[in-house]
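Example for tutorial group B:
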């Protein structure tokens, strides 16, 4: 196997791993979906045009990727849903969970950082 083929396979593997982490992020509030889906798109674009086009054609992720690539946009609906889900899923363990105080602080810091990034992006193209 030559170096070009190895890189292509590495990008494809990275794309699948990123997509899997993005999927898991749909259910875990501290694992953000959007950056992993965007990373998957980048990896697939460099490793396999077929997989890249497949990802763009997905009704859930395709528009998100295209908005980001063309305009650096995260749609307002995505921001609102993300915020609601993160707040709901983090509130109970932070308030009532048998978690060390430093871990609760880390959860708040990560959550605020992720939401800060998301809300710093435009909601529509200018």
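The residue assignment follows.
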């Amino acid at each position: 196997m030559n170096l070009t083929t190895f890189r292509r396979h590495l990008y494809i593997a990275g794309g699948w791993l990123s997509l899997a982490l993005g999927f898991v992020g749909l259910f875990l509030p501290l694992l953000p979906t959007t950056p992993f889906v965007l990373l998957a798109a980048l990896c697939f674009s460099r490793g396999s045009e077929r997989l890249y086009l497949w990802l763009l054609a997905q009704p859930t992720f395709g528009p998100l990727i295209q908005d980001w690539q063309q305009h650096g946009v995260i749609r307002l609906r995505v921001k609102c849903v993300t915020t609601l889900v993160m707040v709901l899923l983090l509130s109970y363990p932070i308030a009532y969970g048998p978690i060390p105080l430093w871990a609760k602080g880390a959860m708040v810091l990560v959550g605020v950082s992720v939401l800060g990034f998301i809300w710093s992006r435009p909601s529509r193209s200018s």
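The chain has one domain: 3-120. Compare this with the pattern of hydrophobic and polar residues in the output above.
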